[in-house]
Design brief:
- The structure is a single chain.
- By secondary structure, the chain is an alpha/beta fold.
- Helices cover 35% and strands 14% of the residues.
- It is built from 12 helices and 15 strands.
- It has helices at residues 13-23, 31-44, 55-65, 83-90, 109-118, 152-161, 217-224, 246-256, 259-276, 308-320, 348-353, 367-381; strands spanning 48-52, 73-77, 94-98, 120-122, 128-130, 137-140, 167-169, 177-178, 190-194, 207-211, 284-285, 292-293, 299-302, 343-344, 356-359.
- The strands form 5 sheets. The protein has a 4-stranded mixed sheet with strand order 1-10-9-7, with helices on both faces. The protein has a 4-stranded parallel sheet with strand order 6-2-3-14. The protein has a 3-stranded antiparallel sheet with strand order 11-13-15.
- Helix 10 (308-320) crosses helix 12 (367-381).
- The radius of gyration is 21 Å and the shape is globular.
- The two termini are 26 Å apart.
């Protein structure tokens, strides 16, 4: 089986894990957590970084720190992994689901403008509320699909007009740039990352919150460390046990040491797929833009005009050839827990998701393996 996207554990992971175990620092404190946070801070251009137990807990803690609570709303795009919406629900808030743009598959800034201008209004206390639900709109959360930054300048401009903080769900986007700016400097107040097993850089499981702002790091660290005060068992607010373990951080440090190598390999894989399918009419690579460099977390093809039946045949051909070929994210507004949420749709999410085929793109993928994938895809698409 040629897997879709698995971790490349061939660096210092074993060495650092042995040091970690020998030191007995295996839980939520230890030198590797500090090293991991520093390497993450540098890699994202942040002022500070706080490691967490998962990307979802990073999103939840970020929203909670901004005061998102019961009855509130957070604007999110529909084309995203379910964790984006779940983080909002964990705050006992509900998402306002907005469709995506064509160029990046990220939150559509034009639709965001329409929702805030036409569907929301300020109450007598100056709180922006959705007119139908009465819930306060507390934040905007763009997602960097496949590691490509959303149109942040446009999203930030709209959000600032309405005084809304921005939390970027950059789960898979470490190493990406937007208009020459690194991840933490794209304008979001807080940016969340994931280091899950299938991400470009992994700690087995884990996440991080980063920011270019001077303040906030100590508050986030306190919140995610059970809000413990000093060395005694004194806690001043309701906190969360969202700490990354030293064992996870040891793996993450070894991975971050190879970030540039991994980014280069991902870019080469994406480029080869794009080149080898370029002659096929109606077969497109995943989105790229002139002003951004994505992490190329996932590579694959998008077939906007083909029948759904052909997508099934394509996945059958991949499986027959021992190649993992999963479906893509089902839009949030179509998911059972969120079908009744407020939404503003333009049809793109529904048009995109069933016609996307992620293809194997692990950083250790060989040229021969990638050519096997390409041959399997062409065995179907050449016969259309």
């Amino acid at each position: 089986m040629i897997p879709l996207c698995i971790p490349n554990i061939s660096g210092n992971e074993g060495k650092y894990l042995e040091e970690c175990v020998s030191s007995t620092f295996v839980s939520s404190v230890g030198p590797y957590v500090d090293r991991f946070e520093e390497l993450t801070r540098v890699a994202t251009g942040a002022t500070w970084a706080v490691a967490t137990s998962a990307g979802t807990t990073a999103l939840h803690a970020a929203l909670h720190s901004l005061g998102v609570g019961p009855g509130d709303h957070v604007v999110i795009p529909s084309l995203t992994f379910i964790a984006t919406a779940n983080a909002v629900a964990h705050c006992h808030a509900s998402p306002i689901i907005v469709d995506v743009d064509e160029d990046r598959w990220g939150l559509d800034a034009g639709l965001l403008t329409e929702v805030l201008a036409n569907d929301c209004a300020y109450d007598v206390n100056g709180v922006l509320r959705h007119s139908k639900t009465g819930g306060a709109v507390k934040a905007v959360m763009p997602v960097f699909a496949m590691g490509l930054p959303a149109d942040m300048d446009a999203i930030i401009a709209v959000s600032e007009k309405y005084g809304l903080p921005v939390v970027a769900d950059a789960a898979a986007a470490i190493g990406s740039t937007y208009k020459g700016r690194s991840l933490a400097k794209m304008g979001a107040d807080l940016t969340a990352l994931s280091f899950n097993g299938n991400k470009l850089v992994t700690s087995g499981g884990g996440g991080a919150i980063v920011s270019a702002k001077e303040d906030g790091g100590a508050q986030i660290k306190h919140l995610t460390s059970t809000a413990r005060v000093g060395a005694t068992y004194e806690h001043d607010v309701v906190g969360f046990n969202y700490r990354m373990t030293n064992v996870q951080a040891a793996v993450g440090v070894a991975q971050l040491e190879r970030l540039e190598e991994f980014l280069g390999k991902k870019a080469n894989i994406a480029e080869k797929y794009a080149d080898d399918f370029r002659d096929l009419t109606g077969v497109l690579p995943f989105p790229t833009t002139d002003d951004s460099i994505g992490s190329n977390w996932l590579s694959g093809i998008y077939l906007p005009d083909v029948p759904i039946e052909l997508m099934a045949r394509l996945r059958e051909a991949l499986a027959k050839n021992g190649i993992e070929g999963r479906t893509f994210w089902k839009p949030v507004h179509m998911q059972t827990p969120y079908q009744d949420c407020v939404r503003a749709m333009n049809g793109r999410s529904e048009a995109i998701w069933e016609r996307v085929q992620p293809l194997p793109c692990s950083t250790q993928l060989t040229v021969h393996e990638q050519e096997c994938v390409i041959d399997a895809v062409r065995s179907v698409l050449d016969q259309r």
